[in-house]
């Protein structure tokens, strides 16, 4: 099982989809993945021939215009959708702890559970004792600044607090991989800033494999080590960009010329794709 205090797997339980003799561990691997959605009157190709390797312990951001298949790709990597064509390899599950934990834009907290019960839910499903899961949940509530709301219910929380609850739950599971679909997209600008800083801190502490879908170029540059730029539908990988900023990282990098240049270049690369999505969506 995973160590409850550090929430990291023991050395003999590290999961990986592939380990190259001279290369990094690969958590997720997609090869020539296409996805077609069928309806009675037409079919829509969401993804077309996508190939991608995600290194274990990396923070990868997927950016692209609306409707380009970003969320579909994330769900295929996590096993929530099946590819129509192509092959996907994901880490092997070796314990009761799920390999992938998800965080969605709508945060998905259970209204009938307290904040503590929500954060402990994944551990409950994995068979941890009440004492173990509550201790771990309280640790993560402290990390995200919600300790005093442990016994509150979601309707008593702001949107940002609900999303912090969802993120704490994902980290608390001990899953080695986090798949996040616009997790901060519904938040106001100030709360989003705080959550971005918190995500950086949590990832730098845990070094889980994170794949995050976002529309925001600034967010991708601030959070990610790598940015996958996708074309308009049908989604293909247009560029694969390494983010050069060192860790530990904070929002001060946004004031640097390097950040501004990268943001401009990425937007120039995406501009035509965004225009296509507006015209043809």
From TrEMBL:
PROSITE patterns: ABC_TRANSPORTER_2 (PS50893)
Keywords: ATP-binding, Nucleotide-binding, Transport
GO MF annotation list: ATP binding
InterPro entries: AAA+_ATPase, ABC_transporter-like_ATP-bd, ABC_transporter_ATP-bind, P-loop_NTPase
Highest taxon of the lineage: Bacteria
Pfam families: ABC_tran (PF00005)
SMART domains xref list: AAA
Domain ABC transporter: 28-257
Entry protein name: ABC transporter ATP-binding protein
